[in-house]
Design goal:
Elements (H helix, E strand, L loop, with lengths): L5 E6 L5 H12 L4 H4 E7 L3 H11 L13 H4 L7 E5 L1
Parallel strand pairs: 1-2, 1-3
C-alpha cells in the first residue's frame, strides 16, 4: 500500500504514455490520478513533444536538454517522497 503521492519523473517522455498508464491504473482502482501521482519533472528537448505533453496532461513544462540537468535539478529528497523515474 502506497500512502504517499508518487512523484513522476519522465526523461525523454514524448507525449507521456507512462503518465497515461498511471492515470489509467488510478482510475481502474477508483482513484483520482491527482491523488495518486504528480507530474514532478519532465525532461525532453523536443519542443513539439513538450508542447504535446503539456496539452495532454495540463502541465507547463519547458524543453530542456538532459545534458544541462544535474542531480540537484531533479529535486529528489531521499527517504521523504516516493519517486518513479521513467525513460
Amino acid at each position: 500500500m502506497i500512502n504517499k503521492k508518487i512523484r513522476l519523473i519522465e526523461l525523454f517522455g514524448g507525449v507521456g504514455c507512462q503518465a497515461l498508464a498511471l492515470e489509467g491504473l488510478a482510475r481502474y482502482n477508483g482513484l483520482k490520478p491527482e491523488d495518486v501521482f504528480e507530474h514532478y519533472r519532465y525532461i525532453d528537448n523536443d519542443k513539439f513533444a513538450v508542447k504535446s505533453y503539456n496539452a495532454v496532461h495540463n502541465t507547463n513544462f519547458e524543453p530542456i536538454d538532459i545534458r544541462d540537468v544535474t542531480g540537484k535539478d531533479i529535486g529528489v529528497i531521499k527517504n521523504k517522497d516516493i519517486y518513479i523515474y521513467i525513460y
